[in-house]
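I am writing to request your help with a piece of structural work I have in hand. Thank you for your consideration; the sequence and its tokens are set out here:
=====
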Amino acid sequence: MGASLWIVWTVIGIIGGFMVGKLVPGIRSVILSVCVGICGAVLGGGLFVLICGVTERMESLSLAVSALICAAFLWGLAVLTEPKGTDNK
């Protein structure tokens, strides 16, 4: 597992966090959403490679898992920072 895989996971987190920070109205800080996105992407990709091993196919699948875990972390951020007292009906 090379450093390039860590860089790609980080880029996935940056892109996801930036998009959520700009598009979700309840999130006030783009920097916070980028940090959460990076944490989710690196954690998800790293744990997947740690559990499943390091092969070329598993490295490719780790990118998808990284994006999924990043999305889950950012969804949690959006839920936790949602303004109280608003009805989303």
